[in-house]
Design a protein that fits this description.
Strand order of the largest sheet: 2-3-4-5-6
Structural class: alpha+beta
Number of helices: 4
Helix content: 10-25%
Shape: elongated
Order of helices and strands: EHEEEEHEEHH
Number of domains: 1
Number of strands: 7
């Protein structure tokens, strides 16, 4: 187990600070149901910056996850290269934030958990239904294929 990095988001952004690190995929518990296994490491970098009077956080994540292909149910190596920019807003401003396609918002916190933020961004970036490229999949084992109509049993009972 290792320490959870916490930052004061506004101070971090206003002073242009940077934080880099690695995290084992096994430490990101909310990913567990989406992965075939939890081996590997993710590399992350968080940097604070300002655009005019606006405080921002930039997040970069790279690594590889092992997802389950929804066609063949086999392992799918999914390379990650994720870049996100988040505008920091106070809790009072969160209610007034307009939905813009270009900018994502994050409530500024004096105890922002960096690994939770990395995990959130990762969860948002993963495909809903991951699949191998067309022609790459091996058909599912015969035990998983539906060969008989399930209603044929009911038809036999009717006779």
């Amino acid at each position: 187990m290792f320490a959870q990095p916490l930052i004061d988001a506004l101070e971090f952004a206003r002073n242009g600070k940077q934080l880099r690190g690695e995290v084992p995929i096994s430490a990101l518990s909310r990913l567990g149901d989406l992965l075939t296994d939890s081996r590997g490491m993710l590399h992350y970098a968080v940097h604070g910056y300002r655009v005019g009077e606006v405080d921002m956080l930039g997040i970069e994540i790279s690594g590889e996850c092992h997802l389950r292909c929804q066609r063949c149910l086999g392992e799918l190596n999914y390379p990650l290269t994720l870049n996100a920019n988040l505008r920091l807003v106070s809790s009072a401003e969160m209610d007034e934030v307009e939905a813009e396609d270009e900018v994502e918002y994050l409530e500024a916190s004096s105890q922002l958990d960096v690994l939770a933020l990395v995990e959130d961004e990762l969860l948002l970036s993963l495909p809903f239904s991951p699949k191998h490229a067309t022609g790459v999949c091996v058909p599912a084992p015969e035990s998983l294929q539906h060969s008989a109509n399930p209603f044929s049993v009911l038809a036999a009972l009717k006779k």
